[in-house]
Amino acid sequence: MRAPRAIAGLLVALIEICLTANTEAQTVYVISQSGHRLTEIAPAKMPLQTIDLPLGPVNMAASCDGHFLFVTHPELQKISVVDLAQRKVRSVFPYAGMPFGIASDEDATHIFITDWTRSMVSRMDMANGAVTAEAKVGRSPAHIVLDHGRNRLFVANREDGTISVLDATSLAIVATIGVGKAPFALAFSALAARIYVANVQSGDISVIDARSLHVLATVPVGKMPYGVAVSNDGKKLLVTSQAESEAMLLDAETLAPIARIKTGRYPEGVAFGASGQRADVANWFSDTVSVLDLDHAMEVERVPVAEGPRYVALVPAVGLCRAN
To answer: Domain range spanning residue 228?
Structure first.
């Protein structure tokens, strides 16, 4: 009876070695809202490295060169800038609202912020923290992504059930797109020219053509989908289901389900590794990060982090800033 367990243990060990080999160039960063900490999960660096952050960090965006992380702090009404090489907070800028979602332009000279309470999008100059432009969007804007190639911002308006599309230079509204109920998280594929929207209350994802701005499909994925990510090659899609404590793996092109993978409790943020073989999931109520092997559709490790992990990012974000 012991042989199958030994073989299974060896299989998991071999998978972990392969995952490490394929993600050496990237580092996983996890934001913990209650623990006020950024945890660095790098395969070659143990124990885990951490960086103390101001109170209540919720969301983050990496600069395209991988040098900085920009972090929102809704409770403090602040934006912090983390220097990853120095492993410290470089700057903290005040913000006149409740910052939630965040995205960076390609050269990290400006960031774009969603304001949950004022229902606005702001552009901030990273040289001095000055807000240089603002635009009204739908109610309770959550996540925001930037299509660098078309110079467009996509904003998930949770309370309106819409996506606002803005010109990133002028912040003029280009379109407003109806999606499912309570859209929250967004993922953008430059190669596929698609926006994937996780709709929390309707339990589905909406797929938007980034060129025509038309909704291509709506796909049921499970209860309370709070996180979504697409692989760099545009072929795999992961959606986290908080109510079911799992991640759903789909074919990003056909939208056919592939597998459901158990995670920790209340999974939220998710990010793919460069090869598309690995993904990391922040388990909000378990204070852990699940490391997933997507070739075998299984969780291979659960890494303890500071209390309340909400969002995860891999740096450098390969493919994220590629123009299309």
So the answer is: 2-315
Domain count, the chain: 1
Give residue-wise pLDDT tens across range 131-156: 999 999 999 999 999 999 999 999 99
Radius of gyration for the chain, computed over Cα atoms and rounded to the nearest angstrom? 18
Q: Is residue 221 in a domain?
A: yes
| Whole-angstrom distance, CA of residue 92 vs CA of residue 322 | 28
Residue 211 lies in a domain: yes
Residue 256 domain flag:
yes
At residue 41, the pLDDT reads 87
| 8 Å CB contact between 259 and 222 | no
Q: What is the pLDDT of residues 20-66, one digit of tens each?
A: 444 446 789 999 999 999 999 876 556 689 999 999 999 999 998 89
DSSP codes of every residue in 105-139: -TTSSEEEEEETTTTEEEEEETTT--EEEEEE-SS
Q: What is the distance between the alpha carbons of residues 4 and 6, in angstroms, rounded to a whole number?
A: 5
Q: What is the CATH number of the domain that holds 226?
A: 2.130.10.10
- Is 324 contained in some domain? no
What are the b/e assignments for 270-281, b being 16+ CB within 10 Å? bbbbbbbbbbbb
